[in-house]
Amino acid sequence: MIRLIRSELIKLRTTNTWWIFLLCSLVFSGLALLINIAQTDQDLHMPEWADRELQGQQDESSEGARAAALAERDRVLLSRSAAGLARHAAAIYTSGQFFGLLMVMLLAILLITNEFYHQTATATFLATPKRTRVIVAKLITGAAMAFAFWLIATAINLVVGGIFFANLGYSNSLGNWTAQQAILLNLLVYVLWAIFGIGVGVLLRSQIGATITAAVLYTVGTYAAMFTLTLIHEYLIKEDWVLQAAVYIPPLASEHLVRGLSELSDSHLPARWVGAAILIGYAVVLGTIGTLVTRKRDIA
Questions:
Q1: Does some domain include residue 69?
Q2: Domain tally for the chain?
Q3: Would you say residue 45 lies in a domain?
Q4: What percent of the chain has pLDDT over 90?
Q5: pLDDT confidence of residue 121
Q6: Single pTM value for the model
Q7: Owning domain of residue 235
Q8: How many CA within 13 A on the CB side of residue 145?
Q9: Whether 93 contacts 175, CB under 8 Å
């Protein structure tokens, strides 16, 4: 098994596209990090209009304006609390998750489809007749690759996020379980999406077909499904469970597991463990089907 894993790591390292996926992941993570930092900075600062209203510096004031300023002050104080800072830190330290998972999945797909594209599958399975061991080696390699992507992105997020909080004079919340949990769960979803990629690559052996299908379903499919659920809730079935069904969409299940779905209000959010159960279920199903298909499929 160790030799198989080393072989798969060599195949991954010699794939000319791995550094492109890593570069794309870093670029998207950087953009997401900047957006999350800007959002956090805005949430932690009292708007000028509200500050002037509370200090009685407005030329014209009303009871409604005073109430709005008080509500804004309460929101800012909540953001500055330990729990609020931990939630902001969790978002910053897991920045770039959406596109990072996409890159991991696509690279994992290449781990299996490259065998068929370059016609090395026959040699691989002749050298190792027990095909289950080959798939397990690819799963372990995919998990190691996912860990590397997570580690690099998380290291950048921690450094930049820590500097950001220090400049504002706030705690970096690394000692808070909310932030720690988000970081660790983010590693879990990275690994699970690598398993997804292996499963997709086994089911769709065409390299171009598998990558395009997976990318379109992940990006366009996610937003299309969320838009459809919103329309159904708005015009057909005005029940909370309609919006809660968004957690069954794998990318949204990942987001919900790590830091909660921002697309839904708190009253619509299912338990966090639901996201974990759904992701693990998808991974087990795809991994099992992929292994069974590989064992029985004719390789030529």
A1: no
A2: 1
A3: no
A4: 34
A5: 64
A6: 0.87
A7: 2-37+95-296
A8: 37
A9: no
